[in-house]
Design goal:
about 450 residues; alpha/beta; Rossmann fold; 3 domains; 19 helices; elongated; binds adenosine-5'-triphosphate; binds magnesium ion
């Protein structure tokens, strides 16, 4: 049934070795070889690989980590279980990094060891689930080869060199800002500034000075001249993000600006001409807002000179493997890991609906790269990650051990960077703080 009936046990402590052998061979029926020293173990491993090795960590002048390496090079699929009475965070981390199957603290009870061995067997059964990779991933920041994306690239190519105003629409996380940056980068303004303004996060009362600027003393609190985005981006590009969220009064101001291309900072006597290209984006349906009289029709037409509509990720599922591999490689590089996505894992990724689109996929891959058992992103790992999405925000009451464990691992991988960790975990930063407090870490 499984290929793990042969086990090599490496243990210098005679009584532990004998106990394990008696149990696994006589009671459980495994075929067991034994080594009392690292050199003996190397000799046995040289004669052919084992599907399963159980090794003590502290042996002689060499350690269980050396056994781990030798076992893996003799048989890359070998499951290595390390055991030690002197485990530390460092040895556990190091052994996990090097691909140990599990780490068992001594003293252990035999049932626990058997359970770990059984799990290794179950994992070996899954080894027919091959790793996936893509050799000819396009060298680009922007990934996607589906017909809708090709159309988007064509529009970007045509629009970029012109100064035409572009309106990018698409659900959250579909790559609107990325597209805006590409347009800027492929334009003659590429060497000048690209200034993004998130219209939704700036209070309506401040948007005016944010965009048009204000002179010192123009309003209470204006203790110095404030350069607006349109002036800061002179000769460059202004990216007006979440344009669907601006109020009617400001819509009119913006319309005037697009017609005149002049700014008059608050408190200034005369207007100034500026040369900026405007790219706007929204995840709301602007046409519908116009119909409902919530967005000025004349402004809509001024913005919508070149429309770009980004497809939701679920509308271009064929691109999911490309994106997944792209993000996997990036995360592996960033965290010096070697995680893989299996065929079943890729299928599960491709079947999910991705309400948060590419951004959500990116964060999930990053999380799985760090957290997937054995650094193997298979169906089970993906489904677990998806299931945990819905339970995340409301898990305020009790903090499951596994979750605390995940938080610790992600924080370790990000070098303690909490905003990054929150993104990877798919939770808000304040939720992470709350959870850390519960864990007694904050
Ligand atoms: N086609 C793509 N290829 C590679 N990365 C992408 C692609 N589309 C989006 N991304 C990445 O996904 C993340 C989200 O993209 P972006 O910020 O451009 O989305 P958005 O549409 O502006 O989202 P929101 O509406 O939430 O502001 C970014 O990290 C971006 O680099
Ligand atoms: Mg955005």
């Amino acid at each position: 049934m499984t290929g793990l009936r042969r086990i090599l046990i490496v243990e210098d402590d005679h009584s532990v070795r004998e106990t394990l052998i008696t149990f696994l061979r006589d009671c459980e029926g495994y075929e067991v070889d034994e080594a009392a020293s690292t050199s003996e173990a190397f000799r046995l491993l040289d004669n052919g690989g084992y599907p399963l090795v159980i090794s003590d960590v502290y042996l002689d002048e060499r350690t269980g980590l050396d056994i781990l390496n030798a076992a893996k090079s003799a048989n890359p699929d070998c499951a290595v279980i390390l055991m030690s009475g002197r485990g530390s965070i460092e040895t556990v981390m190091e052994s996990t990094r090097r691909g140990a199957f599990d780490y068992v603290a001594k003293p252990f009870d035999l049932d626990h060891m058997l359970e770990v061995v059984k799990r290794a067997e179950a994992a070996a059964l899954k080894s027919s689930d091959e790793d996936t990779d893509i050799d000819d991933l396009p060298v680009s920041e922007m990934i996607g080869s589906s017909p809708t994306m090709i159309e988007v690239y064509k529009t970007i190519t045509k629009a970029a060199p012109t100064d035409a105003t572009v309106l990018i629409q698409g659900e959250t996380g579909t790559g609107k800002e990325l597209v805006a940056r590409m347009i800027h980068n492929y334009s003659s303004r590429a060497q000048q500034s690209f200034v993004p303004v998130d219209c939704a996060s700036i209070a309506a009362s401040l948007l005016e000075s944010e965009l048009f600027g204000a002179l010192r003393g123009a309003y209470t609190g204006a203790d110095r001249d404030r350069i607006g985005a349109f002036e800061a981006a002179n000769n460059g590009t202004v990216f007006l993000d979440e344009i669907g969220d601006i109020d009617p009064g400001f819509q009119l101001r913006l319309l005037r600006f697009l017609q005149e291309r002049e700014i008059k900072p608050l408190g200034a006597a005369r207007p100034k001409r500026v040369d900026v290209r405007v790219i706007a984006a929204t995840n709301r349906d602007l046409g519908k807002l116009v119909e409902d009289k919530k967005f000025r029709e004349d402004l809509f037409y001024r913005l919508n000179v070149v429309p770009i509509r980004l497809p939701a990720l679920r509308e271009r599922r064929g691109d999911i493997p490309l994106l997944a591999i792209f993000f996997l490689r990036r995360a592996n590089e960033r965290y010096s890991l070697d995680a893989r996505i299996t065929e079943s894992g890729m299928r599960s990724l491709q079947e999910y609906s991705w309400p948060g689109n590419v951004r959500q996929l990116q964060h999930m891959i990053e999380r799985l790269t760090i957290l997937a058992p054995q650094y193997r992103i298979d169906e089970e790992a993906v489904l677990d990650a998806i299931a945990s999405l819905s339970s995340k925000e409301n898990a305020g009451e009790s903090l499951a051990d596994t979750e605390a464990d995940q938080i610790r691992k992600v924080l370790a991988a990000t070098g303690g960077n909490k905003s990054r960790a929150a993104k990877i975990l798919g939770i808000e930063r304040k939720t992470l703080y709350r959870k850390l407090e519960k864990m007694g870490v904050a």
